[in-house]
Amino acid sequence: MTNPVLAELLRGDLVESRHSGAIAVSDPDGRLVLSLGDVTRPIYPRSAVKAFQALPLLESGAADRLGLTDAEIALAVSSHGGEARHVEVATAMLAKAGRDVRTLECGVHAPSTRKAADALVRAGQKPSALHNNCSGKHAGFICLACAEGVEPEGYVRRSHPVMRAVMGAVADMSGAALEGAGVGTDGCSIPTQAAPLAGIARGFARLGTGLHLGPERARAAARIRRAVAADPFLVAGTGRFCTAIMAIFGERVFVKTGAEGVFCACFPELGYGVALKCDDGATRAAEVMMANVIARFLPLSENESEALRPFLAPIQKNWNGIEVGLLRAAGAMG
Amino acid sequence: MTNPVLAELLRGDLVESRHSGAIAVSDPDGRLVLSLGDVTRPIYPRSAVKAFQALPLLESGAADRLGLTDAEIALAVSSHGGEARHVEVATAMLAKAGRDVRTLECGVHAPSTRKAADALVRAGQKPSALHNNCSGKHAGFICLACAEGVEPEGYVRRSHPVMRAVMGAVADMSGAALEGAGVGTDGCSIPTQAAPLAGIARGFARLGTGLHLGPERARAAARIRRAVAADPFLVAGTGRFCTAIMAIFGERVFVKTGAEGVFCACFPELGYGVALKCDDGATRAAEVMMANVIARFLPLSENESEALRPFLAPIQKNWNGIEVGLLRAAGAMG
Question: Least packed by Cβ within 10 Å: which of A6, A333, B73, B227?
Fold first, then answer.
């Protein structure tokens, strides 16, 4: 049951902290090309499967009927920093559905980017549901409801037609639970469905290749991949791992974080999907694990290699800017 | 080498994340009354041993010569939230040494309390070294230097007479390293000295009882315990674990957090000292471990039991205030 240590924090000459975890890298048929730790135990993928959750918006034709742009599709699969442009795009999506911030049911939190939070305070404004990191995903749910002629109110509940479609897509793509012990409640109040890392990784291999997907779903997957690669800022934001990695690799890597140390990715040219979870929920360690998975599998140009290097073993600096240590891959990932 | 899981995050009916760690509870002679995981491997105690680091300020007579108040002593052992009162007390300490913010060498960061950070932005001010969570400790170092007639500049370096005294006290109290591989650099630029949890716990048992300490050190330890119990807000701040726990227990529990999942405590009436570390560095889990150590060892009144309960298994709410899970003790602590 105990997963191996896959990342460690070095301070001076001692390992100060240790992060264990599990990693699955799969092809579209479910063949595992890498399996570390327990990849069969169900985990909550949280926001890492927003791309699966956005499939109904596209494959239903709702996105086209409302004329959603690629930027809006990218925001629908984002966990954004609540920066000005994120808020603008979410507002525009809601307007296309004939709605506004009042229809969002994700709850309110301050922008997760410090700079954006400070800017709001300086402007004397309070955060709204538009600043919630999930507002783009929720705006997508509202677009789906309105384009299909369904009242959006209560869309976060599993009995709502929108959430039934969303949960069905996640289940199809990953083998996730639809009910029972495997369904919890996410930070933004929609259900989060537990699935094994192996199943999630296979789903991402399919998202990246279109294999084993129907034609509408394969087209939807391709559009999502193009949309995020074209504007990776919208998927996360300033200083964020997902944005930085996709800015380096474009359509070669789709990567998405989820709360509690989850990361998913696909490498379309290889046909591989990736799903990993740091046992203790630490994003810092999950990022190092994902960066090292990319380095292990993806052929890198010299420029890409150079650009990826800081993410493989991030240097830790203190408040005076002094280097005090680094976070690095360990054990089977080291 | 692998420590046991001691805390876990439950979401819905599934365990979402797991935290392993080690815990030592010792008497002043070094007899362990609880030992979970590896308590002999050196760990960096970070800010959890600020009480040890403050001993030279008191036992040298410097604190008395400068007329430091109990509030100022409490701030000297704090990791504070950068709130207005923390900044005021740090400023007053520096003034007693004939110095100001410019002598602080801890570096600058925004107040760690969101409310205090927002207030600063609203006032159009930038954070200074006074807002650094370690400014009280550093002000104490500067007071020690000035009262002893030593130039404070460079006090963060191990060659400085102040830091030699501070490191000596930590080594005496815990068996910590004075040089070599066991000495790293802390967030505030002073050395952090690795020591085994068993040694640190023994040191806290001595801090709590005065046993095996010389008379000046025993008096210094008693004054620190009284000072923090009299004003626990100064040791941490609004919404913080250390402040809340000491507000419940007064002089019955001294508790102090350190970065990367460290917690130390002493229970003077039992003569026990506690040192624990969550392997992955998570404060949330270290807090749950410490709350459960308190519940296991300390006789509790009904009121104390009621007040401690929320810390034993903190309920997790999402952005809409919906309960989505809880963090709880597990394994040998469960």
Answer: A333
